[in-house]
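As the next step, I wrote out a protein sequence along with its fold in token form, included below for the reader:
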Amino acid sequence: MQVRSAQATHAGDLEIGNTRVACAVLDGGIRVINQSAILSALGRNKRPKGGDTGTILLAANLSAYISSTLKEVLSDPIRYRMPSGVRALGYPASVLPEICEVYLEARRNGVLLKSQEPAAEAAEILVRGLARLGIIALVDEATGYQEVRARRELQKILEAYVTAEFRPWLKTFPDEFFEQIYRLQGWEYKPGTSKRTPYVGKLVNKYVYRHLPNGILEELERINPRQGNGYRRHKHHQHLTANTGNAHLDKQISHVIMLMRISKDRFEFEELFARAFPEPQMRLPLPPE
């Protein structure tokens, strides 16, 4: 059963040789390849003619090489939303090599049209690239190296975002950020004071730090732990790198402020925030009255 109007939790580009193919992971872990990306990778028009958005292999000379299962899958594309909210069409990632094999089998049997030869050449490159990626993944899985690779990738991200040496304190969260939080929560806001209810810290983590790359907040909490008095020695943002970490932080703060400005209460804000940042969020308990 096909997933209809699903939500993509992750999206990116799969590099196969010199070709980049847009892909995504949907709720439930379903891997999909973007329809336009498949057409582009094969040198085809990104928008099928005649209003047909669900079939890639239309030519009659190719039909003999398309299995009934593949025909069914191609005729019923998966509709999903990217993390950005943009709508897209795609197919299960497993069909990409099958589509390539259709062109290659037709070429082996000498039935390709002249106009289809570039697609067959592109399909051959894709198949070779997929084979190389496949054997690497198999070796990584057999040896357990995929865990090491994941740790190395995380380490690269941490090095780009977090520094053990703290930077001098600079005002990073504008007053409006806290003013809007207090407004939405129905709290009294006192301009000019830096004292905040402890619950504000949880909201800052939820709306800002949790939306830096995975692992960043955990690393900040490790190198900047709470002291015996319950307070941290420095502000988390003092341990973010200036060019990468703080740049991303500033951008996230700006997005959150904009969403708070247009929200009439915390419930509307939560809805807008979930739509803007659809990754699963930890639901916090309502603050004490």
Summary: The mean pLDDT is 82. The CA atoms of residues 172 and 257 lie 13 Å apart. The radius of gyration is 25 Å.
